[in-house]
Automatic annotation (TrEMBL):
Organism from which the protein derives: Candidatus Accumulibacter cognatus
The protein's name in its UniProt record: PilD-dependent protein PddA
Gene transcribed to yield this protein: xcpT_2
NCBIfam families attached to this UniProt entry: IV_pilin_GFxxxE (TIGR02532)
Segments crossing the lipid bilayer: 32-51
UniProt keyword list: Membrane, Transmembrane, Transmembrane helix
Keyword Transmembrane helix: yes
Keyword Translocase: no
Any Pfam family: N_methyl
Gene3D superfamilies with a match to the protein in the record: Glycoprotein, Type 4 Pilin
InterPro entries cross-referenced by the UniProt entry: N_methyl_site, Pilin-like
Amino acid sequence: MVGRKNRLRQRSRLAGVSCVGRHRQGFTLIELLVVLSIIALLLTLAVPKYIHSVDVAKEAVLSENLHLVRETIDKFYGDKGRYPESLEELVSEKYLRSLPYDPITASTQTWTIIAPTQTNDSPHAKGKVYDLKSGAPGSTLDGKPFADL
């Protein structure tokens, strides 16, 4: 009887399992499914808030880019006495480092350029870029069209 127990102990040591109690080598399928379902439940709560935060950040970047480019156009007009012919002229004249980025369309080429109008205050307005608007379709989370920012 003693010899049999010794042989069982030697075999179990080789197999990585003790005679006294078996050590589990992993999780059961049920345990894995429970953990995965809890993770999925938590993700359904977190993902919508994350997506909303990304949309709010894109709108803030768009608004700031428009504000900075409009200020730059005004500075160009103050220095040169005319409006720029294109956005690229603002870059080539070192008023901007690069063309502004529209985060909604993920492009620098979708801007809508507004030309200056001939008014009584400025009958000889020269140049082609008076204002800049986003060319993105749709509206902000507040319901305001992107083109009206």
